[in-house]
Design a protein that fits this description.
442 residues; alpha/beta; Rossmann fold; Dihydrodipicolinate Reductase, domain 2; nine-stranded mixed sheet; six-stranded parallel sheet; 15 strands; 26% helix; globular; binds nicotinamide-adenine-dinucleotide
C-alpha cells in the first residue's frame, strides 16, 4: 500500500473504531503522519508558507533563482533542491506540493502534480486562461476521491466571509438580483520591458519563462520586494492576468463564496484600449450566472483600476473601499470589504420583517487556519474550502471576461463544452500558446 493511501485509510479507520485509545496514533495530528512536501518558489510568497509546512517533512525545494533556493534550504536543510519543477515533482517520495511560482506556470504545476498523485496547494490564480482553469479543475474532479487541493485565497478564512454568505442566503436583502466586486490596484505599464543586460548566473531565466513565449531579460521583472515581486510581472499577458488574477482572485472570492455559482452563460467587458502586451488597468466585466435552487439568475460584475459600480446612495462612497463586494437584492443592498459588512435597506420595503436572523448555533463555523485546512485535508478529510472545483469555476469565469474584453463583444458561453457559441474568433483566446517542449497536462 502506498504511503498516501495508508495515511487516508488510517484516518478513515480511526474515525470508525471506538476501541482505539484517544492518543493520536492516526489522523491529522498523529506524530508519524506527516506529508512529504515539495515547495516550489522558496522566497517571496513561498516564505509565507514556511511556518505552516514546517510541521511536515519538507523533502524537496525548487526555485529558478539559486539564491532564493539557498534561502529556502536554510530553513529546510534536509530537502533536495531543484531549479526545474518538472524534475522536482518526479522525486518519488513527494506526496504534496505547495506552489508559489509565477502565475504562468500555475496550471502546469497543478496538472503535473495531480497526474503524479500529489496533493496541491496552489497560490492564486489557478490559471491565466480559460483552458488552464478548466484542465486543472477537470484533473482535480478526476482525482477528488484521493487528492486534496486548495487555491491560495487565504482571506477566505476571515469570518466575515461566512457572515456575508449567511446574510445573503438567509435573505437579509431579499431576493438576490445583482452582485459585483471591485479592486482599485493600478499597475500601468507600456509594454514588455526592453532587453537589458544578461540574466545573473544564479537565475535560470529560461526556466522562469517556462511555457510562455520568450521575452528578453530585464532586471525589472525581478526588482520587487519579497512577497510583492509578482507586481513586477503579473500585468503582462504572457506572465499573468493583471488584476483579474491578482487582487481579483481574493475579492471576487468574497462574492463567489455567497453565490453557489456555476459557470456564466455570457460575458461582456470594456476598459482601456486593448494592448497586446499588457493587461488593462481600467476594466469592467459582466457575467450572467444561471439560477440555482435558492436564487434566480443574477448578473455578476468585476470592476478594476478606477472602474466602479454605482453606489446605492449618494452618501455611500464605495471608492473608500479599496477592495470590496456589493450584493443587491429586492429589499436592500449589502456592501462588504474583507473584514466587515453593512446592510442598506431599500427605501421601498426594506423593513427587515421578512428576515429571520440565524441563532448563534446555526452560524457557519470558522474555517480556522487556511493552510492547515489543506494539510489536514491531505491527511484524510480531503475537504478544503477553495478546492480546484470551487475556485476553478471562478477563475474560468474571470479569464472568460478577459476574452470578452479582447474581442470587444458580448459572448455566449457553453460551460459544458467550454466554447464560445456566438463569436467564433473568441475561441482562439480561450487558450494560450506555449513554447515547444512544455505540456500543460503532462
Ligand atoms: N495569496 C496571497 O495573498 C499572495 C500574495 C503574494 C503573492 N501571491 C502569489 O504567489 C506567487 C508568487 O508571488 P511572489 O510575489 O512571491 O513572486 P516572485 O516573483 O517573487 O516568485 C516567488 C519565487 O518563485 C520563484 N519562481 C518563479 N517562477 C518559478 C518557476 N517556474 N519555478 C521555480 N521557482 C520559480 C522565484 O524565483 C521566487 O523565488 C504568485 O502567483 C502570486 O500571485 C499570493
Amino acid at each position: 500500500m502506498k504511503r498516501r493511501q495508508f495515511l487516508k485509510s488510517a484516518a478513515v479507520a480511526g474515525a470508525g473504531t471506538l476501541i482505539l485509545p484517544r492518543v493520536k496514533l492516526f489522523g491529522a495530528e498523529a506524530p508519524g503522519n506527516k506529508l512529504n512536501i515539495a515547495l516550489l518558489g522558496t522566497w517571496g510568497r513561498g516564505e509565507a508558507h514556511f511556518n505552516a509546512i514546517s510541521s511536515e517533512n519538507v523533502v524537496a525545494l525548487c526555485d529558478v533563482n539559486e539564491e532564493h533556493l539557498a534561502f529556502g534550504a536554510k530553513k529546510f536543510p534536509k530537502a533536495r533542491t531543484y531549479t526545474d519543477w518538472r524534475k522536482c515533482l518526479d522525486q518519488k517520495d513527494v506526496n504534496a506540493v505547495v506552489c508559489c511560482t509565477a502565475d504562468h506556470t500555475h496550471a502546469f504545476v497543478a496538472n503535473w502534480a495531480l497526474n503524479r498523485g500529489q496533493h496541491v496547494y496552489m497560490e492564486k490564480p489557478l490559471g491565466i486562461s480559460v483552458e488552464e482553469s478548466r484542465v486543472a479543475r477537470a484533473n482535480y474532479l478526476k482525482n477528488k476521491s484521493k487528492l486534496a487541493t486548495q487555491v491560495g485565497t487565504q482571506r477566505h478564512a476571515i469570518e466575515n466571509f461566512n457572515r456575508v454568505r449567511e446574510l445573503i442566503k438567509d435573505g437579509a436583502i431579499g431576493e438576490l438580483r445583482e452582485v459585483c466586486a471591485w479592486g482599485n490596484r493600478q499597475l500601468p505599464r507600456p509594454g514588455y520591458l526592453p532587453a537589458e543586460g544578461e540574466p545573473p548566473k544564479h537565475l535560470h531565466y529560461d526556466l522562469w519563462i517556462g511555457p510562455s513565449p520568450m521575452h528578453p531579460y530585464n532586471p525589472g521583472y525581478f526588482s520587487g520586494k519579497s512577497g510583492m515581486n509578482c507586481l513586477q510581472w503579473n500585468m503582462y499577458w504572457d506572465f499573468g492576468s493583471g488584476q483579474v488574477g491578482d487582487m481579483g482572485a481574493h475579492t471576487m472570492d468574497l462574492a463567489w463564496n455567497a453565490l453557489d455559482a456555476d459557470l456564466p452563460t455570457s460575458a461582456e467587458a470594456k476598459g482601456d484600449p486593448f494592448n497586446p502586451e499588457v493587461t488593462p488597468v481600467k476594466l469592467e466585466m459582466h457575467f450572467e450566472i444561471p439560477s440555482n435552487d435558492w436564487r434566480p439568475a443574477i448578473r455578476l460584475s468585476w470592476y478594476q483600476g478606477g472602474a466602479m459600480p454605482e453606489s446605492p446612495a449618494p452618501f455611500i462612497d464605495l471608492k473608500r473601499i479599496g477592495h470590496g463586494a456589493m450584493f443587491e437584492g429586492t429589499e436592500g443592498t449589502l456592501v462588504a470589504d474583507f473584514g466587515s459588512r453593512m446592510i442598506f435597506p431599500s427605501s421601498k420595503g426594506g423593513n427587515m420583517t421578512y428576515y429571520k436572523r440565524r441563532s448563534k448555533e446555526e452560524l457557519i463555523p470558522p474555517l480556522g487556519d487556511f493552510q492547515k485546512q489543506w494539510i489536514n485535508a491531505c491527511k484524510g478529510s480531503l475537504k478544503t474550502s477553495c478546492d480546484f472545483d470551487y475556485n476553478g469555476r471562478m477563475c474560468e469565469m474571470m479569464c472568460l471576461g478577459l476574452v470578452a474584453y479582447r474581442v470587444g463583444k458580448k459572448i455566449s458561453y457553453d460551460g459544458r463544452t467550454g466554447r464560445v457559441t456566438n463569436v467564433p474568433e473568441a475561441n482562439e483566446f480561450l487558450t494560450r500558446k506555449y513554447r515547444p517542449g512544455w505540456t500543460l497536462n503532462g
